[in-house]
């Protein structure tokens, strides 16, 4: 399973990359705004910086919602760097654009996916990745992980090549369950990746080992 970090923060990306487990980055307009990155030129420069920090795919989201606008923005983003994957929302024009991009060698991540039928459409249109939002479904008392399971089954039934990128992943258990289900990728903030490391028995065990070493070497 690939691990992507869901942030536009350069130091967080660097920290995750240094762990040796980072396979890519996802961003969205909210995450870019959180870092204070505004204006087309700055946004494009920021994507380039992100690409230099990680050896893997970097999702960059279009803002346009009309077909021509999505194509124009997507082509500009894709030309920026070979690691860029154009993130396109699951709307009618988005679906058409995903199909266009897939015919023209531009990789895509279909975002804001909340149902298995939307994921089916994304795969049929030729999306490289589909991003079902686990946490946002949980937020409204729906079952986000069940959606990942359903998409896995549907894609398996028809051997779709679209990769399932579990997004809006908020807890270590989300990652654990996504791995059991067979999601291809999870994207999550650094704090959740770091939380995977922790176990109280590891800390207690290490403390005892170090204390015993000190006692034996007094
Ligand atoms: C997906 O790529 C989104 O950027 C992200 O995972 C959304 O997460 P959130 O629901 O925690 O904002």
UniProtKB/TrEMBL annotation:
Domain of life, per lineage: Bacteria
Entries under PROSITE patterns matching the protein: TRANSALDOLASE_1
GO cellular component: cytoplasm
Cellular location(s): Cytoplasm
Pathway: Carbohydrate degradation; pentose phosphate pathway; D-glyceraldehyde 3-phosphate and beta-D-fructose 6-phosphate from D-ribose 5-phosphate and D-xylulose 5-phosphate (non-oxidative stage): step 2/3
MF terms in GO: aldehyde-lyase activity; transaldolase activity
Catalytic activity, as annotated: D-sedoheptulose 7-phosphate + D-glyceraldehyde 3-phosphate = D-erythrose 4-phosphate + beta-D-fructose 6-phosphate
Keywords, comma-separated and alphabetical: Cytoplasm, Pentose shunt, Schiff base, Transferase
Positions of the catalytic residues: 87 (schiff-base intermediate with substrate)
GO biological process: carbohydrate metabolic process; ketone catabolic process; pentose-phosphate shunt
Main localization category: cytoplasm
Pfam families: TAL_FSA (PF00923)
Gene3D superfamilies named among the record's database cross-references: Aldolase class I
EC number(s) stated in the UniProt entry for this protein: 2.2.1.2
Top-tier EC class: transferase
Family: Belongs to the transaldolase family. Type 3B subfamily.
Protein purpose: Transaldolase is important for the balance of metabolites in the pentose-phosphate pathway.
Official protein name in the record: Probable transaldolase
Organism for this UniProt entry: Candidatus Ornithobacterium hominis
């Amino acid at each position: 399973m690939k691990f992507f970090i869901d942030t536009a923060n350069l130091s967080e990306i660097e920290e995750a990359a240094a762990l040796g487990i980072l396979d890519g980055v996802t961003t969205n307009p909210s995450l870019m705004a959180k870092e204070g990155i505004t204006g087309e030129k700055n946004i494009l420069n920021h994507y380039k910086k992100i690409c230099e920090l990680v050896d893997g795919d970097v999702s960059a989201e279009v803002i346009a919602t009309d077909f021509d606008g999505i194509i124009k923005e997507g082509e500009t983003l894709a030309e920026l760097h070979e690691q860029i994957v154009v993130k396109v929302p699951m709307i009618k024009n988005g679906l058409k654009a995903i199909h266009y991009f897939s015919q023209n060698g531009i990789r895509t991540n279909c975002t804001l996916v909340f149902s298995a039928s939307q994921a089916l459409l994304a795969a049929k249109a030729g999306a490289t990745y589909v991003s079902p939002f686990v946490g946002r479904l949980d937020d409204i008392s729906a079952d986000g992980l069940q959606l990942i399971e359903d998409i896995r089954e549907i894609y398996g039934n028809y051997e779709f090549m679209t990769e399932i990128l579990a997004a809006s992943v908020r807890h270590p258990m989300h990652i654990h369950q996504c791995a059991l289900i067979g999601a291809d990728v999870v994207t999550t903030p650094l704090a959740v990746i770091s939380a995977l490391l922790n176990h109280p028995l590891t800390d207690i065990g290490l403390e005892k080992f170090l204390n015993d070493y000190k006692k034996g070497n007094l």
